[in-house]
Amino acid sequence: MRWTVHLDGGPRRVNHAAVCCRDLIYSFGGYCTGDDYRFNESIDVHVLNTQNLRWTLLPQKKDENGTVLKYPEVPFQRYGHTAVAYKERIYMWGGRNDESLCNFLYCFDPKTLSWSRPNVTGVVPGARDGHSACVIGNYMYIFGGFVEEINEFSCDVHALNFETMEWRYVQTFGVPPSFRDFHAAEHIHGRMYIFGGRGDKHSPYHSQEEMYCPEIVFLDLKTKVWHRPSITGKVPVGRRSHSMCKLDNLEDILRDNIKVKFFSVIYNDLIYVFGGYNGLLDQHFNDLYTFDPKTNCWNLVKPHGKPPTPRRRQVGIVKDARLFLFGGTSPCPHAAVQEQTSLIDNNDTHVLDFKPRLKTLAILTVVEKRIDTTCLPKELRYEIRAMTQPNSISRPVNHAG
């Protein structure tokens, strides 16, 4: 396991949401400190090609008269929202700008690069940000977040049936996770695992007396019962705005049967947690933990290579046994000790390779040792440039007269 890539020049974004479809990662919205998010400008969509590691900004959609589509036809620029994939469509829900929140469901079609608003029925959850969403079967499950209309944190579960487009409140049993926002959720074996997030001593109300829960809790989607497993290992410090993910289907990752067998023993069915922030400690993290749902054991892992700087509000997406991590907020490295509140929004992209190929390790050696590449094949020189040359985001051409 090794951090293999660190490229600057990507989208400078915080509290964005992203989904991987085929070889492309679509990143929706987010914000950058200093920009104005009071108005309902159209959301931006950046795309990362996981093969050549290049970013592209998609052009804004226009109507038949050439006018750029605005909210509510397309989502407004937002942060604290969620995005999930279902049957080669991407569904975005929730989030806010500096003035308002949204609880419309939007659908993005990666083939046509267009937005739509599916008609939904049932009890639509109250608009919120800082919630989590994951897909299990044909349902999208929403948990937690901060519901501004009632000015409260949430610990409720809502489900959207993608086949019927019906929302419903999910009645759960047992003791749910405490009220929180900016936690993370991941599903595995019919369970929805919840870890981290920010709560309040006076929850569900927001009194600025923050709490950070270090427990990992899961909801059994068959019985709708919450469980708190007995944990062993090195438990991460409670945190919010971290990344939590698991590997894709192993059959799609490695086609060689021997590699699949080996990989399943070492990596299969593990949940990964990276980074985040604890406000009580005023500390950002760049640590990496694994959680094994089979043994309920936490483990602090230290990959080879140079890790990303400590950060929160980044996005982490797993594709083909690689974790792509980008954006987020970090303490300014040049700030004085007494100015630790000085923060910087990142525009970098990192890749963690869970099992780097010999070819990748050779490329890293060439780069680290500054070996002359002129005698190498053209294709190999191209790969080296892709892994080392900073991004320059490809932007759409404005054909307006």
TrEMBL record:
<dbReference type="InterPro" id="IPR052637">
    <property type="entry name" value="KLHDC3-like"/>
</dbReference>
<keyword id="KW-0880">Kelch repeat</keyword>
<dbReference type="GO" id="GO:0005737">
    <property type="term" value="C:cytoplasm"/>
</dbReference>
<dbReference type="GO" id="GO:0003682">
    <property type="term" value="F:chromatin binding"/>
</dbReference>
<dbReference type="Pfam" id="PF24681">
    <property type="entry name" value="Kelch_KLHDC2_KLHL20_DRC7"/>
</dbReference>
<protein>
    <recommendedName>
        <fullName>Kelch domain-containing protein 3</fullName>
    </recommendedName>
</protein>
<dbReference type="InterPro" id="IPR006652">
    <property type="entry name" value="Kelch_1"/>
</dbReference>
<dbReference type="InterPro" id="IPR015915">
    <property type="entry name" value="Kelch-typ_b-propeller"/>
</dbReference>
